[in-house]
User: Fold these one by one.
Assistant:
Number 1:
Amino acid sequence: DLDEQLACRIEQQGVQSFVDYWETISMWESQKNLPDNIRTDLRTQRLQNSAAGLASSLRGMGTSQQSSLWNNLATMFRPTKLIVGALDKKFTDIAIEMQQHLPTSELTFVSHAGHNIHLEQPDTFNDMVIKFLT
């Protein structure tokens, strides 16, 4: 599977090679709009990971390792807030489908944000979470 292939790649080529690759994934494209200091801090954090830790994370918690819970969504009746960056095509599609299955969900698209809304639009993200929780 892809998670196992990526785990092996990290072990063989190291963390820096992985981070160099990871930062080119289209999912992170909108992060290029972040201020230089935030992008530098993010890269520094990524480089502090260990190859063994990243590989173990992929093997133990990668998406291919997780059981699908789609069939359980219709049974969840707790209020659910779905927040997705409008620039994150893959996860906007997923969120739209999730909302159709979650009977008490509310979906919000955050403009000018991709996959990491909390970094790209932190004030908007914080306001939405606080409003939902209170």
Number 2:
Amino acid sequence: MRVLVTGGLGTVGRVLVRELRQRGHDVWLCDLFHHHDPQYQKCDVGKFQQLTRLFDEHGFDYVYHLAAEFGRWNGEDYYDTLWVSNCVGTKNLLRLQEKHRFRMVFFSSSEVYGDWSGLMAEDVMDHHEIKQLSDYAMTKWVGEMQILNSAAMYGTETVRVRLFNTYGPGEYYSPYRSAICVFIYKALHDLPYTVHMGHSRTSTYVTDTVYTLANILENFKPGAVYNIGGGEEHDMKYASDLILDYLGKSDKGLVTYCDPEPFTTRVKKVDITRAMQDLGHDPKVTLDEGVPRTIEWMKQAYARNVDFIRTGTAMFHA
């Protein structure tokens, strides 16, 4: 298949491109930056003309639509970019899908479950009124509604996936990244950070997530929606303690423990039965295994960055 991955330079996108190519697919990618890959094109999904040029030059059978602004606080601080990228960008792709008839995999988020406190099964929103708790969550739910409307009006074929806290190598630090990424970076550099008590998650190692995502091409069911999450629930203190223990550091002077974070889902209990049945989803990497792997990758990644600053030697981060 000829496949386009939007957001192909992101944490999940890079690994997905590699996995799809290993399976023999003709994979193209686009993102916001200049890049050397011969099958890469710089393209902002929020700009319809840029997307139109890409689709006019290359025909695609499938599009994995990962390109989006990520995170609730990023969505508060940069809400204008968030809404354009996540909602206008998705609408742009739908307009092109209506014309070119490619199949799409749309990346939603566990955040769409908002204030739901029960088991997060894919049909919860079909039976209950849910309040999304941030602009980021709202944009992801808007994207899902846009897709359902396009399918009903124009017969487009899309699968929606809701990722649950994917983490692992390839995620570079910023204050807006995942909690595990932030904890590792700050613990490595002896910088203080905050752990909000009373939250639990089912974190998913990136290769487990990507293996399942790649399987969608082999069993594509138009209109399907899947939770893609981990197999074990943990609180955020457990994740922080794992990191500190591996690094041989104490939380004293580093970690501040606080009450639950407002406007954030407290407990995410995910039902992954549907993804297991249809897509062979089988999260193998436990948090106890994945955290050390991620720490070792980050040590090397930031050592290379220091090397670059000191020597001026350019390094490519695969």
Number 3:
Amino acid sequence: PTMVAIDFNINCEARSTEIQARENSAFMYRAMVRDPTTAPAFFGKAYRRGDSPMPGYGSIEQYPHNTIHVWSGTSTEVGGKDMGSLYAAARDPVFYPHHAELDRMWVLWKDMEGNEDIDEDEYLDAEFAFYNEDAELVRVKVRDALDTRNLGYVYEEVDVPWMVQGA
């Protein structure tokens, strides 16, 4: 039960909560406002190394997304079945609020002036299979899930201090 550093390389035990809060706010400003000036810079974009496709991290993928998985997970869990393990992360109850917050960050980023979603048809037409509330398998295209209103919800508008430089 402590404040963690969004930059996983920081020893947050050596800092006061106040200093760590300021560092985290500055880090979020860079990841959400200053650095991602294009959709690929925010979302990431795959690239090739030889014959192998490699993930290209966007500004929020490594930090804060992966950092929170690592901070929330524990290597002492039997079989690594927690937030820190890719194959089992969704079994951890923290997974869902964490990813809801990342979805909210996506909405915040898209709402900033000049930012737009990826508009490539290959991406927009990608399909994912899910079970609906009636246990029926349904396919959902990315383009149909980009606007949260189509999914039946909107995020509450609240002050976000790190959206302003120097906050």
Number 4:
Amino acid sequence: MPSASILATIQKAPSGAIKSTVLLRTLIVGGREIVIGALGQPMDQAFDRLHAAYFGNAPLPWEEFAAAALRYFDTNAETPTAQDAYFNAFTVIWGSILDAGRLDHAEHVWKRALEPAQCWEQAHPGQRIHKGTPYYFWGMTALLRGDLDRGYLLMHQGFEEDILTSGQQTPDTPGYAFVSLNY
């Protein structure tokens, strides 16, 4: 099991006003320092095990991870920023795999990250988890791999998620910037 510590950081808006408070956790896995957002238990422990599996060759019982994710979504069903934090916790793994040039495996990270959210939505008809973040990263990975059809489809799916979550037709999101070609 990796060792972990928690530190708090405060992000400030350009005006100097506090924008949000983000709790970060630093994990040490096999001598590698990993910084991810703190999500609370049992999700933090599940991400510790996930990172230990990827970076330390530890076993990962995916069913336990998925169960923790379902509980996390139960607790954060109405909080898109918390849902984004869940998906953002996968980016360290994704980035490492991407850097190694294993683009097909990097896409698989997002498929797996989405599974608990999709399962939760099936069990809670009429409720949804914001999934713009994983669709955006998955789409970018598909594009890098050269699968333009899949990449553009996923990017547009992420953009639709952003519209549904924000209630705006032109949300200020990376997905909108991509689909509108706004650099």
